[in-house]
């Protein structure tokens, strides 16, 4: 005999489910199917997973329901896990004069269900100009005029097809990568150390850290200065934003300087806050930090104490509270552990959406949960890991011989599933170095630099409509 629960408490129960569980609930009967397909539930899941869903309509997304969009967008994100090596084509794009190319995607995520969408990258192609490239065709699509001063840093905001540069005289320029002249310019008082463009709930912003320890936030598209804050007495050398841009992590790699986390809204809406809202993370010698994907308030830090031969990981949750009309933030300790020295010394690391830490130690990958429970080892024996790239779905490992391996996180467990290996298509020169790896839904790009020949960008592009 079927038991019919009232729709209101049933909707409340469904609101706690993830997408996989909602899809299962929809198979029970017609009533459950109707409730589990509710736009209210699926929009909430979309907003939690993708920031831009807060600011768009279904008409702009091109779907009739939020459930349809969630399924379609998730299908798109997992395209590479359905691929095989033969589904990729290989392209090379030179970076003129041997300058580091600073490549950044300026296109959207890429592949769509009808096969449309092309990956486009923006990069420094010489000391004093930037260009955009359709990497699927391997053709130049736009180039800026020659600049009088060399470009030092480049970042992009793919949501708006905008690039931001800083030159060696600390001049910031905003480009739409279509016109010959910059949309806006501004200047810094001290040389720029870090540059990042982000899309926040208050709009698009440019974040800059300088060598004097200042954090600047400029508004896009006019580069109006929103706020300037003295964070450290010396240079900032780490700047990471949480997945939905609620928090900013700032660090100076120094044994006597502790990392700080700021509440983004307190820096953007200065008239609403008497002072920036921040907390200090009590964790010295922090080398790297990684926000847990799709868990907005959780961050994991890694420290390396070389004299003691200890690598330590620690995880905090940020807790925002309002006390007597004043907003405060406090870090809450979640877990910590040390990696045994006989397992190697981690260099690169990242965290999955299920609180799994993956780190590289020379020629192996190690997986732990955030409490230090050992989960998995993947050995490569003769190959040495150069880079580790991660997002909520994939882990890409780049090796010293130019090859790479693509892994996907298992949806229902804490393991990595190997997808395929992509070999280097050319013999890499001696003393060459792959200094950057990036990925979108349909491509993987890397930059190789060497002293003997100009740098070049190596791209693998997924061509099949999977």
TrEMBL record:
Sequence ranges assigned to domain F-box in this UniProt record: 1-45
CDD domains the record matches: F-box_FBXW12 (cd22137)
Gene Ontology CC terms: cytoplasm
PROSITE patterns referenced in this protein's UniProt entry, alphabetically: FBOX (PS50181)
Pfam families with a match to the protein in the record: F-box-like
Record has Membrane as a keyword: no
Coiled coil start-end: none
Key words of the record: Ubl conjugation pathway
Listed pathway(s): Protein modification; protein ubiquitination
Source superkingdom: Eukaryota
Annotated protein name in UniProt: F-box and WD-40 domain protein 13
Source species of the chain: Mus musculus
Name of the encoding gene: Fbxw13
